[in-house]
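Retro notes
What went well: the complex prediction finally ran end to end.
Inputs used:
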Amino acid sequence: MAKAEFGVPELTQYVEVPAIKEGAMAHLKPFVVNNPDHNTDLGFPGELIDDWQTKAVEKLGDLCSRYRSLRVYLDSCVKCGSCTDKCHYFLGTADPKNMPVGRQDLLRKVYRRYFTLAGKYFPKLVGAEDLTRETLDEWYSYYHQCSQCRRCSVFCPYGIDTAEISMAAREILDSIGYGQKYCNEIIAKVHKVGNNLGLPGPAIANTLEGLEEDVWDDAEVHVRFPLDVEGAEVLLVTPSADFFAEPHVDGLIGYGKVFHEAGVSWTLSTTASEAGNFGMFIGSYENMRRVALRVRKAALELKVKRIVFGECGHAWRVAYAFLNTLAGPFDFLDPNYPVPQHICEFTWDEMQKGTLEFDKSENDDKVLTFHDSCNVARATRMGDLPGGQFEIPRNVIKAVCNHYVDMHHETIGERTFCCGGGGGLLTDDLMELRVKGALPRMTALKNAMDEYGVTHMAAICAICKSQFTKTLPYYGMDMDQIVSVHQLVSNAIVLNRKTPPPEWAEEEDEEDE
Amino acid sequence: MSTLYALLFIAATITLVVGVGMKIRQYYKTPAPLKIATTPAPTTPSGVVLRIFREVVFFESLFKGSKWTWIFSWMFHFALLLVILRHFRYFIDPVWLPIQLIQPFGMYAGFAMVIGLGGLLARRILVDRVRYISAPSDYLMLILLLLIALSGLMMTFVVHTDIVAVKDFFNNLFTFGWGPLPMDFLLLLHIGLVIVLMIIFPFSKLLHAPGIFFSPSRNQVDNPREQRHLAPWAEALEKQDKPGN
């Protein structure tokens, strides 16, 4: 078990709703931007400005006038309490400011003070408060303890979505120079290099060559992993973690094999080598748009006909729900396919067409379950029918595995629990929060292991995969238990399209002889 | 006193109608720049109408979230609806048939209102999480509604007032004439508290009533790939550095 400097919750049969413990997580806040460039590159002041109070209140007013969601959500809450026991961070930490409404109220009390009649004249009565330095620091702390997973919005009678509130709060913080290091550094990298990890083109090319060699060594088939190939049918945009992290990279190998067997030409792009769009995490429409436009640019330059996104949760939200708005219209692409498509939609389509053959027994060493990633579940769709985002990935898994069971029904589908690391929190300085926030999912997984002998959990999100790799050991489980959906596809797919050996393989053979 | 009540009632009505009207206008005019429906969501406008209908009539999401809160709040809201409809008999003449038909139910709905409100108040006090999020105004709102319901019930079942005179008072009011209001304590309390409720409506959390119709996570059609959605302020950005334009 991993060593922890904080108490790791114990797994029990059910996640009990804890009695509130005020201030339990007040000590935790992620690193603040320490290189002013990471703020200014994004269009924000380099460091906290002097007149932050005035400017923050102005920004709140500005956002209220531009986002109906924010305005309506700040007004409408009746404090019914329906959301109070729904957040995984509250369940794991017991801090009442991690209850969705507790988190919202940090902003709402300031909104009421400056923008409502009741708050101006009767602040005590309606719980309105001035914006003080203390409140500002609480914003920074608690709006970086929300993974924007939207679970609370399912249970709110008015559909109040805390994600909208925390995005607005983060944008206010950024606008006064109080940005979070992890997110802003990453967005700066995307703007400069093209992906979250700052991988330059040659490094990606090198990795992809390595994958071709791996598949060749394994199956003697030359499955290509093309980069910047003009005129390919499909542009694949995938999280940059897919290029090197485990188990992500096994998923990337799976995508390559599916394209190979389907006979569809495809390419990755150096400049759009990242599906994730952290602009959403910080609530910045402008940054989100800038990041999204790379995809449009790459699609135009490479003259592709379709855009497909790899396994990534929040990325799929921006892709599915926002890409058309931010970077559309995509009238230059093939109108017979939705723009963009999810890799699971692509694979499922090919499965139905019968172009792919599988040997399911290749996954017989596993009993699988599926973790619905929060943003895929509650902010997107796959296929034509509502709920396709639950059906299609499961259909894909069941088509390549013999043993599959779902976790408890209250922890999947639209009620799924976030992994605990989404929304710009996948950073080591928030490890305590990440481990505690993983509690509900870890509990559901452990129960499925005990009851049904589940051995592995599949996911379609780069953040979920990285997060579980880290948190599983804290709960006494094995980091390898988290797998990519297309890793399972990769294991089971039969490579029928034989290819001539690549040049480098022939050279190797000669050397061997 | 009657004149004061008449003036206050007119002022309260104007505040309610204008205040809520302005809020609705503000919500309507504020753009929703992104598609943020909580999914799975309907893919057609008629599906959205049905979703909102289920939220407004059955409190679907609250049902998923908390059964106790759902029972008490549903009981309260629908009892309130019946009671309000029943009260039309004091404003219109002749009384419409549907209003006559619900009269017996409307009378007893007052009790359901009190039970519902009592349950909500108890939950607010007893559950530590709900107590933590409650401001004084949250308790006062429930107490205000409870007092309105209790004073009304008292007049219906215990100490009757001269209801014919009350009806005359309101009918006069509609033609901007002053009539006398019976000087009964319960009646004055009842109407006084209703006036307070009407005045605070547009400035309080009671805005959840219009709010639900404008909630983007509930009222948006899930079709972002099929139909491009662009807010006016976002359209201005379109003229900047966009590849392929």
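What we learned: DSSP finds 23 helices and seven strands in chain A.
What to try next: split runs per interface for comparison.
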